[in-house]
What does this fold into?
Amino acid sequence: MSFWRIIFNSIRQHIGSSILAVVSIGLGVALLIAVFSLREQTHKTFTEIGTGVDAVLGPKGSSLQILLNAVYHLEEMPGKIKWSYMKEVEKNPIIIEAIPFCTGHSYAGYRVNAIDRRFLTDFEYLPGHKFSFDEKENGKGRPFNAAKEAVAGWEVAKKLHLKLGQTFNPVCGTKSGDPVHMNDYIVFVGILAPTGTPHDRAIYFPLTTFYGLEGHGTATAKMAEDEKYREISGAYLKIKRIRNGAMHPGIQDLKFSINQSTDAQLVVPGEVLPRLFSIIGWVDYVFIAVSIMVLVLAGMFLFVALLSALRQRRRDMAIMRCLGATRRTVFGLVLSEALIICLIGGVLGLIFGHILVGIGAEQMKSETGIHFSGLYISTIDYLLLPSLVAIGIFTGLIPAIQAYRMGVLKNLLPVS
Amino acid sequence: MIVEMKDIEMIYETWSEKTKVLDIPQFDIDIGEQIAIFGPSGSGKSTLLHIMSGLLLPTQGSVKVCGEFVHKLSEAQRDHFRSRNIGYIFQTFNLLQGYTAMENVLMGMTFSPGKADRAAAKKLLEQVGLGGKMKRRPYHLSFGEQQRVSVARAIANKPKLILADEPTGSLDPHNSVEIIKLLKEICKEHGCSLVIVSHNMDMISFFEHTVDFKKLNRTLQVQEALK
Amino acid sequence: MKKNIFIAVLTIVAVILSILLVMSKQKNQKSCELEGKHKAYHEGSLNAITQCEIGHFEVKVLDDKLDGWFVGGGSDTNRAVRVTVDKIEFSVFLPDGTIKEIVLFSSPLDLAGEKKGDCSHFEGGADWLKDIKTFQAVGKIYFKEKWQPLIIQYPEGYDRD
It folds into this structure.
C-alpha cells in the first residue's frame, strides 16, 4: 500500500472535518485571489496603462472626477469651461497642443465624446503611437470629416458589432431611453485600431456636431458659430518635454496660475491617481487583512481537526509502528495529510476565486466601466503554492510531532 | 538459532518502586521451530515477545533475533528490523478499522523493502479462507475472520519469525482450533518459526515443543518461593 | 498537550500582529504635512507674514531673479492671496554685512484673472542675487487690511513661532 493511499484513507476516515477544512481554506484562498486580482487590475487600469494625456484643463470641482471622466470615460464632468479661457491657456509656451472636448452623451452604455478632429490625427495615446484606422491593425474606415459622422473605439465596435455606415442616436447622460436626440442620426465612418487604453471604450464625433444636435436648443447651437459664447467640458493638454522625457517643470507654475482662477483647474493624471490609491489603499489593506484572517482561521480549524483525528488514530499509528513504520514515517504521514488538505483547498480556492472575479467582471463593468478579467494572474497566484505549503506545515507540525512522540505499546489497546 | 536470549532482565521503574518482570538466564529457539509458551496471565509472556520483536528494550541482557543483536539497534533500526523479519499477531487482532481486509494485509507489506504485492495479498487471503471477503472492513467480519486477516497480515512481509500473543484469547473454542491449525500450517509452508504465548492449555497441546514460563522466568520462581 | 496548543496559539497571534505591523508602516505621502511642516508649492522658502496662520510669502531665487508669491496661512500654501500694492521694497542683509535694496514689482497671473493692484505674484532682479546663497530681507506689505512687516529668511524660511 502506498504512502499516499494511507494518507487519503486517513482523510477519508474523518471525511467530515477534512471537507470542512478544505472548504474553509478554499474560501480564504478564493477571497484573497479575488481581492488581489481586483486590486491589481484596478491599479493597472488607472496607473500603468498610458493614455497620452499629460494634463486636463477642466472646470472647478473634484480633480478626480475630472480625470475619471476625461481620461477613463467614467463619472461626469462637474461643469464647463470657456473656450476663450482654453485659448488663453494654449498660448503658454510650455503647451504644445490643446484638444478641446465635450462629454455628457452615451450610446448603449458607452460614452460618446465630442472632440476636435486633431485627436484622431495628431494625438499620441502612447509615445510614438497615434490612432490608426488601418485594416492590418484591425481598424476600419477613416476619421470623421463631416458633422454627422463618428468613429468608435475598438472595444465598442466589437461589443456592439458595429459596422461602417451604421447610424446611432446619442443619449444625454449614461442611461438609455432619453428621447432628446431621437432625431439626431450619426453615422459610423471609422473604427479605431485597438490601443489597449481607455480610448478603446468610447465613441467620438465632431465638436460642431455636439453644438448642432437638435435636442440641444439654440443657445448651444450658437456656440458652434461664436467662440465668445462657446463652452467645452475640458481640453487635453500636451506639454513640452525636457531631457529624459520628463514634463516641462513649468507645468507647476501653470497649474498654480490656472488653479487660482475661479473658472478652471489643471489636473495632472500622474499627481491625482497616486493620491487616489493612497486614500483607498487602506480599504485594500482591510480586505486583504480580512482574507488573511479567514485563511488563518481555516488553518486553525485544520490544526484542531488534525489534533482531534490523531487522538482517534493513536491505535492505528501504534499498529503501523508495530508493523515496521518508524517515528519519521508517522510524522511524515500526519504532516503530509495537512499539506494535502491545504493544497486541495488552495487549488479549489484558486479556481473559485478566478470564477468569482469573472462572474463579477461583467457586473462591475456595467456599473463602473472598468474592465476586469477572471483570467488575470495576480501576485498572489504566484505566492499561493508556497503559502499553502507554509500553512500546511504550520498547522500539521504539532500533530505530526505528537504522532512522532507517541508510544507504541500503550496505544495498542483492545478494540472493545 | 533464530532467537538467542541471554541474561535478560526487564525492570519497570515508577516514582516509588522498581518491579522486575523478567529474569531469564537463557532462552533459544531453533530456525523453523514452532514453540508454545504457557503461563499465567500477567506473568510477562507478552513482555518477552515485545523484547524479541524490538518493541521493547530489556533493562539488561543480550537479544539476538534473526542474526541481529536487537538490543544494540536504534529505535528506527528496530522498526526496520521488525518490518523485514517479524510478523505479529495480537489477541485483539489490532486491525486497522478504516481499511479493508486486503488493505490490512497490504499494510503488512508496506513498511518492508519491496513493493506491496496485491496478488500475493490476495493469495494469502484465499489461503486463510477469506477470498470472497477481501473488500470487507473489520467491523463486517467475525472475530474468527478478523484473526485470519491478522494471520495473513503477519505473513505478508515474508517474516522469519512470527510472534503470536494469545491469538485465540478472543475466540470461541472452534475458531481457536482453526486459527492454531492455520498458523502452524502457514508457518510450515512459508518456512518461518513460530512463537506463541497463551494461558489456554487446550491450544498449547497442539504444539510438540512447549515451554513453561514459570520455569523460564526466575522472577516467577522467586515470587512462588516467597508465597 | 496543553503546552503545545498554547505555543501554537501564541505563534498564530504573533503572525497576525506582524502582518498588521507591516501594514501600519505604509508611509503616507503627505506625512510631512500631517506633522505640521508646510509645503512650499514652488519649492521656494515660506516666510510667515507675522504669523504662520495669517499668511506666507514664498520666495524663490533663480540666478539673478527673485520671485515671490503671497499664499494662504497654515497649510493652505497652494492658495494665492492677492494684495493691492504694485511694488514692495526690501532691504536685503547679506552674510558679509552689506545691505542692498531690491524692489519687487507685481506680475499678475493672467490665467488666474489677476491684474495690477489685485495680484499675488511679484518679481524682481539684481546682479548680486546670482552670487549669494543666503540672505535676510525686510520690507512691509498691506496684507489683510493692515500694514505688516514682511521678513524673508532665505533659504530656510521665516516663522517666528
